[in-house]
Amino acid sequence: MGKDVIVACDFSSAEKTYEFLDLFTDRKPFVKIGMELFYSEGPGIVREIKKRGHRIFLDLKLHDIPNTVKKAMAVLSGLDVDICNLHAGGTIAMMKAALEGLTREDGTRPLLIAVTQLTSTDQQSMENDLLIKEPIDKVVMHYAENAKKAGLDGVVCSPLEAKKVHDLCGSGFLTVTPGVRFADGDIGDQKRVTTPARAKEIGSDYIVVGRPITASDDPVKAYLRCVEEFVD
Ligand code: C5P
Predict the structure, then answer these.
(1) Which structural domain range is residue 56 located in?
(2) 6 lines ligand 1 (CB under 6 A)
(3) Per-residue pLDDT tens over the stretch 16-50
(4) Catalytic site residue 61?
(5) pLDDT tens across 172-205, in order?
(6) For the chain, how many structural domains are there in total?
(7) pLDDT (tens digit, 9 = 90+) per residue, 63-78?
(8) Does ligand 1 come within 6 angstroms of the Cβ of 222?
(9) Which of these is catalytic: 50, 61, 96, 163?
(10) In CATH, what number is assigned to the domain containing residue 26?
């Protein structure tokens, strides 16, 4: 899969999601379905969006004992999504088990990527709450290396970290990067942001874009602007 824009469908209901997706008549965006939508609508929404011709990143960030994650991943694999994810903090054993669960009988499987440290975790909360005393950048890179060792396909990270991850884990190791804003757009609650064009220069493989598209007056135009800056 080449570079692409993934639209974060952070809607609370199927109705709102379909209303949004119906706007796209030509190019069907790659979409991200998160916990809110999945927990409110169940797996049916994934099947329906797939049926409509979209590729899907199912962002459920699994984190449990290896056996439980393995079995849960086997269920998600049956939904035929394109990308799944988990927390690298669940250990290499958990990530390996997840890959096993995800792999179908014919050897095919969705891509599997890891969340390193959430961007909502800062140095202080990591030290005080998690008792991890190393610098957060080092922790993020160590978790990325663990994901690579476990055989995963990539990580979710800031576009600003994409080059460092590629230098450490190889250019084929995917960087899927939220925190993207247009140069003339609102930042909202994101702290470290980059434009689609800059994310392309740094080497992101996929940018995940939510509100700059979903909250735009013209979502299709905003999506195509992202594609033009990042992909074309
Ligand atoms: O609306 P916005 O473009 O900020 O949406 C970004 C999406 O990426 C949201 O679904 C958010 O939960 C997700 N995300 C993020 N930062 C992370 C991991 C995920 O913004 N570190």
Answers:
(1) 4-230
(2) no
(3) 999 999 999 999 999 999 999 999 999 999 999 99
(4) yes
(5) 999 999 999 999 998 888 777 899 999 999 999 9
(6) 1
(7) 999 999 999 999 999 9
(8) no
(9) 61
(10) 3.20.20.70
